[in-house]
Amino acid sequence: MLASARRTVGKLSIRPVSVRRVGLKLIAFGLLFAAVWFLRPWLHGIIYTTVYSPMFLLLVGGSLLVALLLFFAPPIGETLGESMTSKGTVLGVAVGVLLVLSLGVGFIASPVEQRTIAEQTLDGVEIVDEPPAMNEDNPRIAPRAVSDVQTDGTLSYPQHQLGASDIARAEDGSLVWSYPIEPDQFRNQIQGNQIGLVHAEMTAMEDRTVQAYDEFEFTYGQNNRFWQNVEWQLKKQDGFWSAYQDDPYEFVHDGDAYMVYPKTGHEWQLTPFPHTTPTWDGVALVHEDGTIEQLSPEEAQERPELQGQRLYPVSNTKTYAESLEYREGILNVLPAIGQFENATVPASMPAGVGNDQPFVVDLEDEQMSYSYALEVTGGGTGLAEIWFFDAETGTPVMYDTTDQNVFGPERAVGIARGTDTQTEWGPDGEAMAVEPVLATVDGSLYWHIKVTTSDQTDVVRNIFVNADGGGPDTDQGGTAVMETTSAVTDFIAGDIDESELEEADDIEIEDAPDDTEDEDDDIAYFIVITDDDGNEVDRIPVEEGQETIIDTPDSEADDDDETGE
Question: How confident is the model at residue 358 (pLDDT cuts 50, 70, 90)?
Answer without folding.
Answer: very high
